[in-house]
Amino acid sequence: MVEKHEKENEARQFMSSVMASMSDVLLVCSPAGRIEEVNRALVKLLRRSEDELRGSALADLLAEDSILPPIKGMPQTQGPICCMEDCEMLLRGADGSIIPVAMNCTPRYDQHGEEVGYVLVGRPIGELRRAYEALHDAHEELKLTQRRLLHSEKMVALGRLVAGVAHELNNPISFVLGNVHALQRYTQRLKTYLDAIHDGADLGAREEMRQKFRIDRILEDIEPLIDGTMEGAERTQSIVEGLKRFSARDAEQTERFDLVGLVAKVVHWVVGSGPEKLEVISHMPEHLPTVGNSGQIQQVVINLLQNALDATAGQVSRVLEISGSVQGKWAVVAFHDNGPGIDPKHQTQLFDPFFTTKPVGKGTGLGLSISYGLVARHGGELSVANHPAGGAVFTLKLPLDAFVE
Ligand SMILES: Nc1ncnc2c1ncn2[C@@H]1O[C@H](COP(=O)(O)OP(=O)(O)OP(=O)(O)O)[C@@H](O)[C@H]1O
Ligand SMILES: [Mg+2]
């Protein structure tokens, strides 16, 4: 009898030493949710004494908005045995602080298989959660920064266009202005002539005025002057439309456009008007009809042209050959410059964001990575190779209009 008692004592001591050395919190309760046993980790975590905890209701330990384990409240305990895994419970510390804990709750049975309560084991997730939240915040911030970078890269490309566009606008605007000035002068003369007629000038005086003011010339001139003004105004409008499309926020807007016309326009704006002398040799078919967001493709072509300008900066005569063709279902345009080509060790990094060999302030290293993404979004491809005759070749492939799903 004494021996049995000793054995029981030993077993109890063994159990309590195991419980005491557990780093996870442990709590044993009755089917009604009354706490029967707690371990040291729980006492330490909640800063409540063992005596205070033992005998109290588990429900009293939980914060108001905690997820309820199935044992909280009497009715639930009558139902089938529930067990929960990795459930987040909010416990209340002695000082009222809320302590989130990831708990596993399993039923406990006696030797006859009768349910006699529950065992809850868990660990505080405050640290984990804080780290997760910090990670989440950092991720959100990164996404925002990336959006800003994409936007600022687009603005840089837009800035490159502006010089060309200003030049382009200057032409039609100056001849619209010239025409309007002429029309203004003509109006004055016509008005004087008509006033004289209305005032009853005789035939001789009329004829004299008609000669003096060159009324017949004016009448001949008016129509072409108005036509020219209209044309100039329309050209201005289409340039502005093109720019508006480029800076449009609606990135998903798609339309039919001709890649040949787009490349020609961008070459004209970026290379044609710049101070740098880059000879552009164009071998383009008449049309390369495709579908997509022409503003985005414009941005890609501007980047390729700007890179070609930078790459050929050290050459005595700088050449960019642009060749377009239809290859199966693709509209293909290759940009071959006579720069130094791509260093083989950079080949795999070229399209990585922020990869640049340009000095600080000159390149962000985003041009190609953004272009790559934009082209991929159009179902196309942007690739690079070195030309056997020297220089880099960037190939832009977009699905032909007829093949766009
Ligand atoms: N035509 C080219 N010839 C040789 N190297 C090129 C050419 N185009 C791009 N590269 C290389 O690829 C790098 C990345 O180009 P990318 O357009 O992505 O960035 P960037 O031109 O350096 O900067 P950003 O376009 O953002 O102003 C360049 O720094 C350059 O080293
Ligand atoms: Mg670039």
UniProtKB/TrEMBL annotation:
Entry GO MF terms: ATP binding; phosphorelay sensor kinase activity
Statement: the UniProt record of this protein carries the keyword Thylakoid: no
GO biological process: one example: regulation of DNA-templated transcription
Keyword annotations from UniProtKB, A to Z: ATP-binding, Kinase, Nucleotide-binding, Phosphoprotein, Transferase, Two-component regulatory system
Domain PAC: 85-137
PAS domain boundaries: 11-66
Coiled-coil zones: none
EC number in record: 2.7.13.3
Name of the top EC class for this enzyme: transferase
Catalytic activity: ATP + protein L-histidine = ADP + protein N-phospho-L-histidine
Domain named Histidine kinase: residues: 164-402
Protein's UniProt keywords contain rRNA processing: no
PANTHER family the UniProt entry points to: SENSOR HISTIDINE KINASE, TWO-COMPONENT SENSOR PPRA
Protein's UniProt name: histidine kinase
Organism: Sulfurimicrobium lacus
Lineage: Bacteria, Pseudomonadati, Pseudomonadota, Betaproteobacteria, Nitrosomonadales
